[in-house]
Fold AraC-like DNA-binding protein.
Amino acid sequence: MKTDKDLNYRLYIQRNDGFTRSPFEYELSFYRAVQSGDTEQVKKRFESIRPDFMKGKGTLSQDPVRNLMYHFVTAVALVARYCVEGGLGHDTAYTLSDIYIQRADKMKNIEELIDLFGEMELDFAERMRTLKKDNVISLHVRRCIDYIYEHLHEDLTLGVLAEHVGLNPSYLSKLFSKEKGMSIKAFITKAKISTAENLLRSSDFSCLDISLALGFSSQSAFISVFRKINGMTPKRFRELHYKDVIEGNKHGNE
């Protein structure tokens, strides 16, 4: 298969050049920061990678500007997806995504595109921050939700969450269910599966990698939960949706 030949060659070149991609958990933490409206974290992350912006990013085109443009399209589409998952309006997220892609398409140099990355990321994060403030929930439940998104890769328990927010486990459980309309366990599962869906759509990470990164006890446990929620296996989901995020960045795709 020609693709396998190209893949093996590219991996060989990358090994020889000492190329390494951005760590998996680092990418996840960034999208979660935008989703949670953590503008300070988003700013710090951009400032830290600004001097060597292309480090850890693959080559999608031999033309430097077009290469960065492809990365921008992927990034803004993923940011939009994560924000929709976090509660941002569907039309708002994808229309904003379209606007940024149209702006990027007019740019002729790398420096302008890099600046647009920072502007786009902060714009989405600020909208999510405003959204979180408007959705009035108690401080304890907000801290609980923030902790969940920051520790999706861990085996989260009611006891751990209760200790973090300083409440009795039973009281936190009742408070959370009252304000969010679902149990803490259901919320955690939903958050993990939503993150898994985004990764299956837009990355090459295996089911095993995803299950480990999201704190499932095993790959089979991840597949079982995913199938229960989506009515299909992660493999089938990827076959249907893989990288549809790049193909035109259609509104909602599904």
